[in-house]
Every structure is written in C-alpha cells, then in structure tokens.
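Now for one record.
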Amino acid sequence: ELGVTISVEEVVETFSGHTFTLEFASKRLGTYLPPEFLENYRDRTFAAMEAELKPVQGVEIALDQITIPYCIASNGPHEKMRKTLGVTSLISRFEGRLFSSADVERGKPFPDLFLFAARHFAISPSVCLVIEDSPSGVAAARAAGMTVYGFSGTTAAQRLLEAGAHRVFCQMSELPSLVADLR
C-alpha cells in the first residue's frame, strides 16, 4: 500500500528470528512512515493470525510427551506471543514461561534471552536444549553455550546447520525422541 514490495522469501530471510522494526520499513520506503502505520500493522497482523494461524503439525503431541521443563524464548513481544499461542490453543502450556527480547538488553542473535530463561529455571546453560527455527536463534543459543537443534519447518536445514545447529529435524513428531536421547 505504501509502495514497498517484498517477496515471501525475502520476508523469511529478513525477519525470521529478528524483530520487525519501523526503521527497516522506513528505510525500504525511503521516508518516514505515516503515524498510524504501526497500529494498523499490528491490527492487521493480529487479524491475519486469527484467520489463518495454525499450530505446527504434531507440536501438541510432542509437548505431551516431553517431561522436562520447557519455555518459549522469542524475539517477538509478549503481546504477539500471547496472541499466537492463544490462537493456536497452546497458551496454557506456556503460562509463566514466556520470555521476550523485551525482557533483556539484546535479543537474538545475542545470548541474553536464552541466558535469562535459563536463570529463570535456575539451571546451567550447558544442560539446556534449544529448539530454533532461525539462524539468528541458533547463533544465540550457541553463544549461550547451549545445545541447539534446528527445526526446519520454515528455514532450510542447511542454513540452520551453517549457523551452528548441532542437529536438524523437520517434523515435530521427532522432537520427543530427540529430547529423550539427550538424557
């Protein structure tokens, strides 16, 4: 609408594991954004989530089988996490265990967010397993000294491996056995 064109592939490449910023949008547009842009963007994004967002296939069954503590550590704001988890009916599985880059000084690819989550659980980063779907998240987990498995649901497995993932999997149904193998 404002004259900026971006492909789906570029969206995934640019924003997967990163936070959308007004600076990015202004730079692409070549001028300041209209004052109502951010509110309209959020409203439309949330409406699209309500209409189209579905949980990753097999994630509910996988979570049912995982017996160790788990959480979400996202570069997204709490409001967005609560919305996506609410729409997908997963919110009750993560209550009190949602960590956002807004909670720390630096988001991914820096380790701050993962280290913050580990401190919350009072466990050493060296015993943490991170499941990540973005190269910046893989880099953050590695920098935190954690084991990281890449989930290649939306990102090419090779990109996750190149970022440093210890292992890559493509189906959530694989996750419980991968977690069990670490014990």
